[in-house]
Write a structure and sequence with these properties.
- By secondary structure, this protein is mainly alpha-helical.
- Helices cover about 60% and strands about 0% of the residues.
Length: about 150
């Protein structure tokens, strides 16, 4: 798999190692972006644009990893649901216990379960309905000498 397929294609399967590599790259990019924005070295709007631009590669990696687990990519929408629940102002409409359960506990549970499923458990061995077994990402271009 090429880096372009890794970051931009929703087709195929991805192994755990390449999933965790993307998580590390994403975390590093977020730390750099927030550090630069926090120090005033980068405009907040440009920082927001960069974060939004990283949504597609993050989605592509997650969908391919779900495919490796023999699950449809639509399961990735659970992360959006978790974000929406965490962003809600539940204190205004619910008692404190329900507000905590819906606005904190449930989003954390969803994210933890997704990370366990995608990052810890092995993919289906061999071919599944989403294609051949996951191929490793080729981070370096192989040079053929003829």
């Amino acid at each position: 798999m090429t880096i372009q397929e890794w970051c931009f294609s929703l087709q195929g399967r991805l192994n755990r190692k390449d999933f965790w590599i993307w998580q590390g790259v994403w975390l590093l990019l977020m730390l750099v972006l927030f550090t630069l924005a926090g120090q005033g070295w980068m405009d907040t709007q440009f920082t927001a644009f960069c974060i939004v631009a990283l949504l597609w590669p993050s989605s592509a990696v997650m969908v391919k990893r779900l495919h490796d687990r023999d699950k449809k990519g639509w399961w990735a929408l659970l992360v959006i649901l978790a974000w929406m629940l965490a962003a809600g102002n539940w204190m205004a409409v619910m008692p404190p216990l329900w507000s905590w359960a819906l606005g904190r506990f449930l989003p954390i549970l969803i994210v933890v379960m997704m990370f366990l499923d995608l990052g810890i458990f092995q993919g289906t061995p061999g071919e599944n309905r989403f294609g051949q077994a996951a191929r490793p990402v080729q981070f370096r271009r192989s040079l053929s000498h003829q």
